[in-house]
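Minutes, project huddle
Topic: does the predicted pose make sense with adenosine-5'-triphosphate bound?
PN asked that the exact inputs be recorded in the minutes so nobody has to dig through chat later. Recorded below.
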Amino acid sequence: MLEIKDLSVKYGPIVAVNQLNLKVERGQMVALIGTNGSGKTSTLKAITNCVPSRTGDVYFEGQLINKISTDKLPKMGLVSVPEGRGIFPNLTVEENLLVAAKGAGQVFAATEERVYETFPRLKERRKQAGWSLSGGEQQMLAIARAIAAKPKLLLLDEPSLGLAPAIVETIFDVINKIKEDGTGILLIEQNAVLAIEVSDYAYVMRMGEVILSGPSEDVASNQDMQDTYLGAI
Ligand code: ATP
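Predicted holo structure (tokens), as shared on screen:
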């Protein structure tokens, strides 16, 4: 459902992504792994046309989306949860969810029950402003916004960042359920152990290039991967 062909991203003289090829199939969770600055976020931003300079092609469900503006993509079913979560701090939880649904051409009433069943804590806090939530609750809201948008493909940038282990577990249980409903997921994670555990297929990036890719269990058993990232897996 997502196919990236020969994608390169530059910031002036800096080549952040170099000739990247990547695919996500329906109902598949694909992890993009790499250390700081390896080009993961730039790849995600390029998919949603949020970088100033890029070459290559991105196809979503067979359609070339290179020139489609960022705000139109959710209506096509391509939804992104950026690093930093992308919630509106001055809107309430409920307003955040309504806006996310509307932006994707959905009606919040259709997913309200599912969203609040998934995150009862958000139901309790539905009249509270986004800024007043804890970090974990904000990440829950970011994922809840994605559920309300009913994506075909979900792009997740570092959903575990800065969260306590118990909350990471809750968030990943929910992400897994979203996948089981048939949504494709492209997951960026610095936590390689976690990413390999939860994903079906993985790409490892270094300095803008894919240095290793394959089914996650094969990537996990690769010797370089063991030495560099995984240690005890
Ligand atoms: P992180 O985990 O830290 O977000 P990353 O793997 O997502 O890292 P990118 O953020 O895509 O990597 O960065 C790739 C390269 O591009 C780095 O060298 C970074 O310094 C550079 N870069 C990223 N954004 C910009 C920008 N707006 N202007 C200039 N250089 C940038």
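Observations noted during the meeting:
- The two ends are 30 Å apart (CA to CA).
- The mean pLDDT is 91.
No decisions taken; revisit at the next huddle.
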